[in-house]
Design goal:
Elements: H1 5-14, E1 23-24, H2 31-39, E2 45-48, E3 54-63, E4 69-78, H3 87-101, E5 103-111, E6 115-123, E7 132-139, E8 144-151, H4 157-169, E9 171-172
Antiparallel strand pairs: 1-9, 2-3, 3-4, 4-8, 5-6, 6-7, 7-8
Length: 173
């Protein structure tokens, strides 16, 4: 019996450090993300739970596989650390990391008491580092979750609107 990808991802993230908490979002708001899930192709997912305090999933939305993607969804479940305890602190960490890699600008899109949503645009980056990404970091009671869209090529306004809608739908259950 083949599991559908959204169920598989939910199961993987529930095995994370936040076993009682799960990140939920409406993947149907992005046709390319919905198509990736509907394809039910394990090659489109790269699940990494080697560090149980920092579990990642990467889902290729465009490209040959999760290893050779053009557009991808990134999901991270992490246990808060001494330096990263809040969505804002994780945003700051991501911004510092991006600046170390290449010239990057950031735009805050939304922020509330439990989440922050922002966009990154970078230039002159090393091969493999996506020049555009939109992230939402959401705090749970015992964990932090990141939902991010990344593209290695140009992204149209409609695609950005779809990504932002998916991010806005994210919640912890």
């Amino acid at each position: 019996m083949r599991l559908c990808l959204p169920v598989l991802i939910a199961a993987m993230l529930s095995a994370s450090p936040a076993a009682a908490e799960r990140l939920q979002f409406d993947h149907r708001l992005s046709p390319s993300l919905k198509a990736a899930f509907d394809a039910n192709d394990p090659a489109l997912i790269d699940f990494n739970d080697k560090n149980p305090r920092y579990v990642t999933d990467l889902v290729a939305m465009r490209g040959k596989s999760a290893k050779d993607w053009i557009e991808a969804l990134l999901i991270i479940a992490r246990t808060p650390s001494k330096t990263v305890r809040t969505p804002g602190a994780w945003r700051d960490e991501l911004q510092a990391e991006a600046q170390r890699r290449c010239a990057s600008t950031f735009q805050l899109l939304a922020e509330d008491e439990v989440s922050v949503t922002f966009e990154r645009r970078s230039t002159g980056c090393p091969s493999g580092y996506a020049p555009i990404a939109v992230y939402r970091v959401v705090a749970g009671k015992r964990s932090l979750f990141l939902l991010g869209f990344m593209a290695r090529d140009a992204v149209g306004d409609q695609t950005l609107r779809e990504w932002r809608a998916v991010l806005a739908s994210a919640r912890i259950e």
